[in-house]
Amino acid sequence: MALSRLGCRGLVWRLRPALSGPRGLPRPPLCCLSSRGGPGALVAAVTAAAKRVTGAYERFLRRRFPRAYVLHQTFASGVRALVLEVKEIRQIRQRMSRQRLSAEQLPYRDMERLRQFRRDLLKVLPVLVLAIPPFANFLVLILMYLFPRQLLIRHFWTAPQRRQFRELEDAARRGAYGAVLANLALAAPALPDTRLREPLRLLCTQVQGGAQPRVSQLWDLRGGFSGPPLALETLRGPHARALSRALLLTPLLPLPLLRRRLRSHVLELRALDQALLRLGLEQLHPHELRAACYLRGLNPARLEPPECRAWLQRWLRLSGQLAASEASLLAHSAVLLALNHQRA
Fold this sequence. Notes:
The chain has 15 helices and no strands. The chain is mostly helical and 344 residues long.
């Protein structure tokens, strides 16, 4: 019995440093924290411990692997931004349900958030599908590192990546403008209204020569875009694919789906224009002006906010007058109004 007491005392003496807190004070176990302060104290202790571990990990990365630290910070801030956006989208959806609103009745900024979030979700969906099989997440991480522009959404891009990817995307879009104009000129002789054939052919020639079309000039041609061969539902395959690339849509879908995707995209853009008219261009911040120009075909990288506002006013003068049946003219205007736009 005495030996057993001595053995227990020796064991306690050896474990005393591990059981003591700072300055020799005893460290209370987690069960004591839970009994003293309830579940809140336990959560606070676990959170504090997680913060200490995360801080040590980030300091290690910053000191030993600075490039990996930048990627880690970008990913962490991207997750936070995505979580905030999901909360905003949920609030918008709840308000729509509570007030029985359709997407077209939303304010401009809410409508634009929904559009962008849906686009991001469609982009990241293949990545989520690839990650379903066991152990496939390692392959997905490697692919995301190698192909960030194709597989990641904007929340997980660094600032230099955002600029670089925007330039690449705009270069690909502008590369499709010539094909759109060529197909438009080829379709001009087939217009049912013979009075529109020569004006459309002349417009294509002028734009190909570097001229800027007038809004009134485009408005006069609207009748030729509401039926075959220029209505979105009747576009030829090469024409529809070139127009899809110019509008930053995938051209790889089958032709019937491609035409339907074009129409839904342009009608969504028309609804955004109507919401923007209700809001007023003067209410937009500079970054919102640039985003609105870019969505409609114009690269605003070298433009000042007043120049962006002036171009958007021209666009809205046309868009605000077009019917849904004339959506094809709005789609082609993303090329016709943006191709030769020069800085004043």
